[in-house]
Amino acid sequence: xxxxxxxxLRLGTNVILFLLALTAAEFFIGAxxxxxxxxxxxxIISTTKAVFVIRDYMHVSRLFxxxxxxH
Amino acid sequence: xxxxxxxxxxxxxxxxxxxxxxxxxxxWLFIISDSFVxxxxxxxxxxxxGFNYHPDVNQILGLAVTVMLLVxxxxxxxxxxxxxxGDVRGFIRNAxxxxxxxxxxxxxxxxxxxxxAPAGPNDGAVWSLFYTMTGFHAFHVLTGLILLFIxxxxxxxxxxxxxxxxxxxxxxxxxxxxxxxxxxxxxALYLVGRAVI
Lengths: 71, 197
What we know:
By secondary structure, chain A is mostly helical. Chain A is built from 2 helices and no strands. Helices cover 79% and strands 3% of the residues of chain B.
């Protein structure tokens, strides 16, 4: 139980560190590169961030499991 | 008795899980529907400005509010996880941090960005859209804060535990959704292209 809790909290920390790194990359790319296709790169970065939050923070997989298995 | 309080004391866990499954479906249906409105706003922005321009807004402030909202999502995740493992005090602590960061985000966007922006909502389609996008999103943040406060208060009253805390999950999923929307709004409004007044 305690191990699972620590594992879940660690996952949250890893995800936020990754998201912060992507946000920093996003900022520098957007602020300093002024080429039209930067918009495409930024959209890809946004989508990547969204996938991680929807999967790991919003637990979208809970929608597809039986009621008994969600906790 | 179908209230959360009632279900904490009465009713079987199987019933609770069944209702929770239905509630979860309903919440996600709402979120997907709401996403279409945000998507419409985002498409309008790219239609008007393409990949070449963005409104002339404060870059540093934009980054600061983005980081605040992102970190608030992390604390919301921690809050929900701790509740799942029965740590109600941990939930209250982390949910409090989430609310503070959410309030700071609102102050940053509505209290600061809107005040220092070089144009108002009546100064053309671009600025009208900027205020609509940030305003509509800010309303969602405010709604999330209200929902979170209600859940936080109920947790303090001892109405949730490790097995029964649907309210906490719903508030967390909604809060993360608001964060995901900002992932797309932030580059669209602050980063893509050159600044245009």
